[in-house]
Amino acid sequence: MRRGIDRRRDGSFRVRLPPEERDVLASLPAQLREALTSGEPTLYRLFPPAFTDDDAANAEYARLVGATLLEGKLQALSELERTAHAESLTDVELLTWLGALESLRLVLGTQLDVTEESYGPLDRDDPDAPRLALYHWLSWLQEEVVHALSAALEDAASPPDG
After folding, report:
1. Could you give the angle at which helices 91-112 and 129-157 cross, rounded to 10 degrees?
2. In angstroms, rounded to a whole number, what is the distance separating the alpha carbons of residues 97 and 89?
3. How many domains does the chain have?
4. Is residue 84 part of a domain?
5. Residue 147 is part of which domain span?
6. Taking the CA atoms of the chain, what radius of gyration do you get in angstroms?
7. Is residue 119 part of a domain?
8. Distance between CA 40 and CA 97 in Å, rounded?
9. Is residue 161 helix, strand or coil?
10. pLDDT tens-digit profile of 42-67?
11. φ/ψ (deg, to 5) at 90
12. Which of 103, 92, 105 is CA-nearest to residue 152?
C-alpha cells in the first residue's frame, strides 16, 4: 500500500495510512491537549514571545491573544482527532491537520531537544528511540500535507487548458 496524502481531481485529499498509524494519529491530540491545559513548561515553543526584549509588552500580548491562540490549538487537535481515520479530507481539514501536526512536532521536538544530528539513523538502544521515531513520522506526515496542499495551490494558479 502506498502511504501518503495526495489531491484528488474533485479537490479533496486522499489519505492513505495503515490503521495502526491512524490509531497513533488519533491518540496524540489527547496527550497534547492535557499538556496544554496543565501549562506544561515544554510548550513554550507553541506560544513564543511577541517581543524579544519587553516583558511588559509580552505579558500584555499574552493577555490579549493568549486565550485565542490556545483555543485555536485545541480546535486543531480536536479536528485531527475527529478526522484521523478519514480516507478523504477537505482543504480546510487538511490545513487544520497541518497546524495540529506542527504543534505536536514542536512539543515533541522540544522535549527531545531535537537538533540536526537527530535526523540521522535511529539508535535502537537509545531510550528516546520510540519518541524520535514518532517525531520523524510526524515530520514525514507534515511534509505529505505540505506537498498535497502545494499541489492544490499550483493547480489553482495554472491557467485552464484551452
Report:
1. 150
2. 10
3. 1
4. yes
5. 4-47+76-157
6. 18
7. yes
8. 22
9. coil
10. 788 888 888 889 989 988 988 898 88
11. -80, 170
12. 92
pTM: 0.86
Tell me the C-alpha to C-alpha distance, in Å, between residue 123 and each of 56, 117, 130, 137, 138.
44, 12, 10, 16, 18
Q: 4 to each of 56, 89, 137, 142, how far by Cα in Å?
A: 45, 13, 11, 10
Q: Is residue 56 part of a domain?
A: no
Q: Is residue 60 part of a domain?
A: no
Q: Which residue has the cell 490579549?
A: 64
The DSSP-derived string for 13-60 is: EEEE--HHHHHHHHHHHHHHHHHHHHT-GGGGGGS--S-SS-HHHHHH
DSSP string, 92-155: HHHHHHHHHHHHHHHHHHHHHT--GGGGS---TTSTTHHHHHHHHHHHHHHHHHHHHHHHHHHH
Alpha-carbon gap, residue 117 to 11, rounded angstroms: 38
The mean predicted confidence, pLDDT, of the chain is 90
